[in-house]
Write a structure and sequence with these properties.
This protein is mainly α and 131 residues long. The chain is built from 2 helices and no strands. 97% of the residues lie in helices and 0% in strands. The relative contact order is 0.03.
Length: 131
C-alpha cells in the first residue's frame, strides 16, 4: 500500500509540475507575444522616423537645388544683359565711326570744288546768324 501511495504521490507531483510548466509556458508565450508587439511597435516608430528623415532630406535637397538653379539663372540673365550692353556699345561705336567716315568723304567731295566750298560756308553762316 505504501508503494501505491508513493506512486500516487509521485503522479500528483508530476501532474502539479506539468500544470506549473503549462502555466509557465503560457506565461512565457504571452510574454513573448507582448515582446513581439513591442518590437513591432518600435519597428513601426523607427520606420516612420526614417521616412520622415528621408522626406526631410529630400525636401532640403530639392530646395537647395532650386535655389542653386535660381542663382545660376540669375547669373545667366546678368551675363546676357552685360553682353547685350557690350554689343550695343560696340555697335554704337561702329556706327559713329562709319558716320564720321561718311561725313568726311561727303565733305571732301563738296570741298574739292571752290564754288561748293563757298556755298557751304555761306549756308553755315546763315544758320549761325539765324540762331
Amino acid at each position: 500500500m505504501g508503494a501505491i501511495h508513493d506512486r500516487e504521490q509521485y503522479i500528483d507531483e508530476a501532474l502539479n509540475k506539468a500544470e506549473l510548466a503549462k502555466k509557465e509556458m503560457a506565461r512565457l508565450t504571452a510574454q513573448n507575444e507582448d515582446l513581439m508587439l513591442q518590437a513591432r511597435a518600435e519597428r513601426d516608430v523607427i520606420l516612420k522616423e526614417a521616412k520622415a528623415l528621408k522626406d526631410g532630406i529630400l525636401n532640403e535637397a530639392k530646395a537647395q537645388a532650386q535655389a542653386e538653379g535660381d542663382k545660376m539663372l540669375e547669373k545667366a540673365k546678368i551675363e546676357i544683359a552685360n553682353q547685350k550692353k557690350a554689343a550695343l556699345a560696340e555697335m554704337k561705336a561702329q556706327v559713329s565711326t562709319l558716320s564720321i567716315e561718311i561725313a568726311e568723304r561727303v565733305l571732301r567731295g563738296q570741298l574739292q570744288d571752290k564754288a561748293k566750298q563757298q556755298e557751304l560756308v555761306a549756308g553755315l553762316l546763315k544758320d549761325v546768324e539765324l540762331n
